[in-house]
Amino acid sequence: MTQPITASIALAITEIHSQLQRSLAGRLSLHGISFSEFLVLRQLAKAEGNKLRRIDLAQGAGLSASGITRLLNPMEKIGLVEKEAASRDARVSLVALTPAGAKIFAEAEVSFQQVADEFMSRLSEQEQQLWLSLLHKLGA
To answer: Where would I find the HTH marR-type domain in this sequence (predicted)?
Structure first.
C-alpha cells in the first residue's frame, strides 16, 4: 500500500531535520556547545543589548522554564552567559551574553553557516528560494 503524499512529505522533513541536526551537533561540538546552546547564544546575540528575559529565551528555544534553567546553569558556569536583574523590576531575571559567549557564538555561527551551505549545496539558488518560501508558507 502506498503512503499518502502528505505522510511522505512529513517523513522526509523529519529525516532531513535529523540529518541536519546531527551535522550541526557534530560541528558545534567543536566549539564546546550543543545546538540548543547555540540557539540561546544566537537569541542573545540578536537581542537588544544582548539580554533577554528567561521566559523569552525559553519560548525562543522551545523549552519550559525548568528546561531553560537546566540549559543556562552550565552555560553560566563556563562564562557564556550571566544573570542580571532587570533595571525596571528586580524580580525579573535577565540573561546576558558575556564577551566569551559572544566570541564562541561568532565562531560557531561560521560553522553553522558552513554546515548550512554544505547541506543546501545540492539545490540551486532558485530551488533554495522555493524551499524557503514553501517552509514559510507551512509556518516555519
So the answer is: 1-140
Q: What is the pLDDT of residue 42?
A: 96
Tens of pLDDT, residues 16-32: 999 999 999 999 999 99
pTM of the entire predicted model: 0.86
Grid cell 546575540 in the structure block, residue: 45
Chain-centroid distance of CA 71 in Å reads: 13
Sheet holding 51-53, edge to edge: 51-53, 93-97, 81-85
Residue pair 106/38 in contact by the 8 Å Cβ criterion:
no
**Residues in Cβ contact with 49 at an 8 Å cutoff, skipping those fewer than 6 apart:** 96
DSSP secondary structure string for all residues of 38-83: HHHHHHHHHSGGGEEEHHHHHHHHT--HHHHHHHHHHHHHTTSEEE
Mind listing the domains of the chain with CATH numbers? Answer: 5-138 (1.10.10.10)
